[in-house]
Amino acid sequence: MVPMGVLVSTATIPSFSTCRPSVPKRRRAAAFSIMAALSNDPVREWILTEGKATEIKRIIPVGGGCINLASRYDTDAGSFFVKTNRGIGPSMFEGEAIGLSAMYATNSIRVPKPYKVGALPTGGSFIIMEFIEFGMSRGDQSVLGRKLAEMHKAAKSEKGFGFDVDNTIGSTPQINTWTSDWVEFYAEHRLGYQLKLVLKKFGDSIIYEKGQRLMKNLRPLFEGVVIEPCLLHGDLWSGNISADKKGNPVILDPACYYGHNEAEFGMSWCAGFGGSFYNSYFEVMLKQPGFENRRDLYMLYHYLNHYNLFGSGYRSSAMSIIDDYLRMLEP
Length: 331
Description:
Elements: H1 25-37, H2 42-47, E1 56-61, E2 69-75, E3 78-85, H3 91-105, E4 114-119, E5 125-130, H4 141-154, E6 167-169, E7 172-174, H5 182-202, H6 205-215, E8 230-232, E9 241-243, E10 249-251, E11 257-259, H7 275-284, H8 291-310, H9 315-329
Helix pairs in contact: 4-7, 5-6, 5-8, 6-9, 8-9
């Protein structure tokens, strides 16, 4: 989804094909100037105490998105990456931190280690995490595919499908109530929730009613499929994928939950996954029968979310997928 803050130095910002607009640089710089002037600054306080720094040498605004502001803090104890949001409380960043910690613990693909989440005294919230300096490219697609599959294979949940907390997909709430049945979880907490938002925001009863019909007819797509609750990044598009200076793949800005591993590819229309990515991935994670027939179903969740976040430009893609599946699945 939205690039909620890209961990890069200003000298090595990679070129991403973005799927949506970013915040103007002057606005980002102004916001950080205001924050830097605050005497009661919990970000500075943490860095100069628990972060073990004695001096903050400079604060550099770095690539951000249209939801959060992002900054690199250079100190005598190293660099830290900080995201702030002036309008949303700590719950959004708390969900991100829990997801990052879960992925970090798998010791598979590289993710930034989260350090601290808190509230800003003037309203809003922040998250402090490890700063990872990116290389000049997004790295090797085959390595990305293998490392992502290793994460999916390493982290499974005994609670079923969901997550310990609700989080966000962009700025949209993502409901992660534990559910034992994947089809039920995906229908209700992914497609169903987005469809309700579409109806509420746009009064779009046509896509809502067709989407409801699709939700009731999903099971044939999963016949003969073994579905395990794997830890998913949840929002894997090009802006959330990079590589460090050594070429190791890095993923960031997650919307984590435990789900069917194929759902990880729901943003593939904006991720640039190629053949080498999928070949490497399926060498580690078994390719299930009917995979190609489910690809668009997992894209639908993200198209609906883009519709809700950015308007009707994404409606036709979502409607086309729904209509195609209804023709396939309804008697």
